[in-house]
Design brief:
Blueprint (H helix, E strand, L loop, with lengths): L2 E4 L2 E4 L14 H11 L10 E4 L2 H21 E8 L5 E6 L7 H16 L10 E3 L2 E6 L2 E7 L3 E7 L5 H17 L1 H10 L7 H8 L8 E3 L5 H8 L2 H14 L7 H11 L4 H13 L3 E3 L2 H7 L7 H6 L11 H11 L4 H20 L3 H17 L3 H35 L3 H17 L7 H17 L1
Antiparallel strand pairs: 1-2, 1-3, 4-5, 4-9, 6-7, 7-8, 8-9, 10-11
Helix pairs in contact: 2-10, 8-9, 9-10, 14-15, 15-16, 16-17, 17-18
């Protein structure tokens, strides 16, 4: 079959090019005709490119999924506001970035009003680009986009990619169509009504890619056969089982690193296969809906779910603390659990600021225990991101420490110990390197090791 790329969407024309008399001169016209039969409007400037092999078609999807993953890792907070008044409609914290939404909303409204008035802004790094506003807020990058009724604001670690900008435009169009009536009520009355906006945000921005994951308890034979015939998927399931033997949940980030330890495969290739396992529901994000559907233990009584919470990670070293928390949780109502969870988060943030990362990790894990046990679904993603970000900090500290030690040994002409420490730093960096920014540091360490080995 011949595959084409149509605005980043794969399309199978259904014909073998060796047997098609119209190939290749009339492919574009033929595809447009088929699209119109399906009810899809084919614009005159639509971009159509032939994908000359199945492998390239898969590569296209690998690149797309990888970019989705990088984009969601970049997002720290999402706000939806009424465009004219600045009234907050939705507040979705994805990570533990600690953004004060009231201060941020005021900051944004003031800057936008100032910018649209035509006066020069004091913020030299603010730019307006086709209705996008990009600003610097504290240590974060902020991007905004106006729709017809609302404004969306994303708080990011780094500048938004072009794919994320496209996703923002699509989100505004879809959200305003779906929730138009509710948006108008909010704007006119100022009163927020409960809806599933956060669920819509979760799906649209692929936030589930950074949620804690568990494995399905049962797999149908066809899915099991498919996994067994794919060596990457088979390895992913094995590593996931290894994690679940001690931790009860895992992150996609963890599995990427574990598979890369064993085989020299691009991270985006591994992520593509993990994504297929998500589609097959062999791997399950631990949101409320999927947990209710797939994890039978969550259908038990409230007390039993707490006593046998399947999502708590035994990373916490103090087993007595776990035992005490389980016993305490059984007698808590949701309001009390929310307060206790918040206190764990605050203790964790205090410890993290003091660079006592292991203590911070313990507190965040206890907070996640309560969030999953009491089904505080809005907090699950937030706390999970905090755990993930803290893990990155711990690994970065390990890398910095080993590299500094290597530098000291090298200055003292102790080349063997210098190489040993550089290799420690290199191993941690390679194991936990999924972003392209780490490539230069890896190459630098490799050059240092090669240089010292020649001297020895």
């Amino acid at each position: 079959m011949v595959y084409f790329q149509i605005s980043r969407v794969g399309f199978n024309c259904g014909y073998d090019k060796k047997e098609c008399i119209k190939y290749p001169e009339y492919c574009a016209e033929c595809i447009k005709s088929q699209m119109e039969k399906l009810g899809l409007k084919a614009d005159h400037n639509i971009k159509i490119e032939e994908m000359d092999s199945e492998e390239k078609r898969i590569q296209m999807f690998r690149d797309l999924i990888w970019q989705k993953f990088l984009d969601v890792l970049n997002i720290k907070h999402i706000l939806l506001m009424a465009k004219d008044s600045g009234l907050l409609i939705a507040n979705y914290p994805i990570s533990g970035a600690g953004v004060d939404t009231e201060l941020l909303s005021g900051f944004l409204q003031a800057n936008i009003t100032f910018s649209e008035s035509g006066e020069s802004s004091n913020y030299s790094n603010q730019v307006a680009n086709h209705q996008f506003y990009e600003l610097q807020y504290k240590t974060f990058n902020v991007i905004l986009r106006n729709g017809k009724y609302i404004r969306i604001c994303l708080v990011l670690d780094h500048k938004a990619s072009e794919s994320l900008k496209s996703l923002i435009i699509e989100f505004l169009q879809n959200y305003e169509i779906r929730y138009k009536d509710n948006i108008i009520k909010v704007i006119s009355s100022g009163a927020l009504e409960s809806d599933n906006t956060n669920d819509f945000i979760t799906e649209f921005f692929n936030v589930k890619l950074v949620f804690p994951m568990v494995l399905s308890h049962t797999l149908i034979p066809s899915v099991l056969d498919s996994i067994n015939n794919n060596y990457i998927q088979r390895a992913v399931i094995k590593f996931a089982k290894d994690y679940l033997a001690t931790k009860q949940f895992f992150f996609i980030y963890n599995i990427l690193n574990e598979v890369k330890k064993i085989v020299d495969i691009e991270a985006k290739v591994i992520l593509y296969e993990i994504y297929q396992l998500l589609l097959m529901e062999a791997i399950i994000p631990t949101t409320l809906e999927t947990a209710e559907k797939n994890v039978k233990s969550f259908r038990e009584s409230h007390a039993m779910r707490l006593a046998n919470n399947k999502l708590i990670s035994p990373i916490i070293a103090n087993n007595n603390a776990i035992y005490e928390l389980k016993n305490t949780a059984e007698s808590l109502n949701p309001e009390e659990a929310q307060k206790l969870m918040t206190s764990f988060i605050k203790k964790g943030q205090t410890a993290e600021k003091a660079l006592v990362y292991k203590e911070a990790q313990k507190e965040y894990e206890k907070a996640l225990y309560l969030a999953t046990g009491f089904e505080f679904q809005e907090d699950i993603g937030k706390i999970s991101f905090m755990v993930l970000e803290l893990d990155k900090k711990i690994k970065k500290m390990e890398i910095d420490y080993a590299e500094d030690a290597g530098d000291k040994f090298e200055k003292n002409n102790d080349y063997i110990n210098a190489i040993r420490n550089y290799k420690i730093a290199l191993k941690v960096l390679e194991d936990y390197s999924i972003l392209n920014e780490s490539d230069s540091r890896i190459k630098k360490l490799e050059k240092k090791i090669a240089k010292l080995q020649k001297q020895i």
